[in-house]
Amino acid sequence: MHDSRWRCLCSRESQMHELDVPVLIVGAGPVGLTMAALLADQGIASLLIEQRDGLHQAPQAHVISARTREILASLGIADDVLARVTTPPADARYVTWRRNLAEEDIARIEIGGEARFVQLDAVSAKRSANVPQHHLERLLFEALSGRTRCETRFGQTWLDAEEEGDGAVSRVEDSASGEVYRVRSQWLLAADGASSSVRRGAGIAMAGDTNLAHMITMNFEADLRPLVKDSPSILFWTLSAKAPGTFIVHDAARYAVFMTPYFPPHEQPGDFPVARCERMLRAALGSADVPFRISSLSHWTMQAHVADRYRQGRTLLVGDAAHRFPPTGGLGLNTGIADAHNLAWKLALVMQGRAGEGLIDTYGAERRPVALANCEASVKNFHKMREVTAAMGIDDRRLPMLGRIRSSALARALPDHVRAAIGGVFVAPVEWRTRRIAKAASTRCAAIRQRVQRAAEDQMAHFSTVGLDLGHAYRGAAVCDDGTTAPVAPDPVREVCQSLTPGARWPHFHLAPDTGVAYRTSSHALLRPGHFLLAGTGRHGAVCEPLAASLGTAVVGVNLDLAASHKALAQVVAWNDGHADAMVLVRPDGHVAWRSTAKVPDLNEVSAVLRALLQVTPFQPTPRSQGNAMTNPMDMFPLPSPDPQARSPRKLAHVVLATRQFEASIRWWSVVLGARTMFRNEMLCFLSYDEEHHRVALINAPTHSPGKAETAGVDHVAFTYGTLDDLLHTYARLKSHGMQPVWSINHGPTTSLYYLDPEGVKVELQVDNFESASELDAWFRAGDFATNPIGVEFDPEELLASHRAG
Ligand SMILES: Cc1cc2nc3c(=O)[nH]c(=O)nc-3n(C[C@H](O)[C@H](O)[C@H](O)COP(=O)(O)OP(=O)(O)OC[C@H]3O[C@@H](n4cnc5c(N)ncnc54)[C@H](O)[C@@H]3O)c2cc1C
User: Fold this and answer.
1) Which residues cross the membrane (predicted)?
2) Co-location of 553 and 666 in the same domain
């Protein structure tokens, strides 16, 4: 076990090492990784432990929903990065039923057509996509590696835990050394998957349908393009008794998965050695010409279970640890990631002492009903799938009998090839019949094929789940019920009605391009990690920004009259039942918490609502000081609101500047950095754009003498951006605020834009030109810097134009 920045103690009695961490997350699957990243972004440090030696090498899930993509985007996983590991949409257009992969289609449905995406585009800026789970996990892990508040340790197995005081003490085993150590944490998060030992340790039971199916999974490498190019499908079902199952074609040129059922008690996973799997896979491919290599075999049991509760003391369940669904519907991972998103902000606020602990209980109260609904839908899909096989005349309830025959004591005594031949005798009639149905031109066979096609078309709810994905409206203590009910779509699985009803997901609509955002920017761009959003129209619109800044909790205020596109604004008013004056408070997880359609905004109500949601003690006005009519000093000043379009820098601790132009400087720094006012009074203003409490502090010093260019002291302050794109975006944004750089220079190590604040302080906004410190070192050693240590000036307008042109 390596040393770390966690507090490392040595327990006297046991001589056992002990770590002290705020949150321990068990399991680095997609949900544990997401959880750690979300917590880090909200200022909460965690230790993530995983029993495996590294990330998964083979996929399970493939469908990631629009909602999951919205959450990934909030973690900074860019669309183009995700696109690099996504199965191209053109290769995932259909779901197809064939006897085997080499034969013609018996039935096919289109799941990735443009019509479906148009439906999706109306409700989200993100389209669902097929991303092999192991690639997604790698992206999440990379995202995590760039965050300082989380440490991931592989080869560490969680053994057990005990509650002690306000926390849990876990025992963890390091698989390399065999050492067992203790981890004390305020919260223990079980993200350890379907057979969660943390859940069992906490005594939480699961309920639901058990052992729906038993499956062997074959991960294999092959170039399947010759077989599938005429029907580019993400899934192929084989309607066959010889090799019944499902192909998931993650990458037709390189690798795929074949899953086939086995039938306990007659068969066990051990009855499927590589040689037998190769024979089955060859039969399922239906071609002797396609070479393949099985890279791994695994087995799993299909369950439909949801935990009785999501919390026991300091232990919380997320992802498959809380629910395990049949994969029919592609809802498991997506539900798990939405769990993490729901929990992270609540946990962060409670741990930071800004919310009462009761807020944590709203997590299970909100997410468990979602799991129950998604579990039910997945089970329904699983059973309904049988209708296609049945239409083909295959009674798949007879398949277990085949398993029994193949594994009877008599058959086991026979050599493999004889045993296979016996199986063949029973399979042959089914194979003969399905071949005839698939190929014969007779009216009877054509009618059967039509029946199969109709049964396949009836499966759309399995592959089109935007309603389940985006349609949940939460109720309970973390939502202020206004007596309205979120509208429900006619088909709540496949369709969604967006609304501003408390509990519903903040709807997707477009922002106005003339406010400095790109054409068709989504309303979801207004949401900031860990922040509430206060958005209003009409009389409420104008007060949102100053009110948000005065609330004391992280709230971004937006006047939708200015921010929303013309068309969207009409829609927003319609969502508010025609009320032009309205205000909504949106939670950090993008669900509407509260709405007001009062004629006149009631500012005290917003503050009271926030306190109620966060379950903090009722607001007690502080006694008024003499001669001061205001209870909150923040109310005394107009507070600039951050520009929602700002892309903020990555680094800098803080800078303290004395200024004679206090108000102008506050405005200037807030606009340039997209910073919030953390505190201010007459003397001092703290501004921050990230987890740091203050990055820039301004001291009101009206009597200070002006700085002179030649005065020694601070020369300039520099902020580093993540990418050139972010820097140029900032250039364009500041230009729209009338701010121009005074100097644009490529220093060699950095590309830099220098601005002057109201006091004339030089502020360098920069991006690194080199990927790593070692590349930069090599460049310095090459001597270019010594020859020209200042750099080369450039025209930012030209750079912007060439950057935009690619
Ligand atoms: C064939 C198939 C297809 C699927 N397709 C989809 C799909 O398209 N879309 C979808 O949304 N879902 C799909 N799913 C479901 C999806 O794979 C799971 O829901 C998802 O993996 C759950 O993620 P998780 O992080 O909660 O758990 P897991 O992915 O199971 O991760 C849990 C981690 O915890 C670790 N762990 C366990 N015990 C310990 C311990 N004691 N100490 C330390 N570490 C431990 C494990 O090693 C593991 O890495 C599919 C599942 C299958 C089987």
Assistant:
1) 21-40
2) no
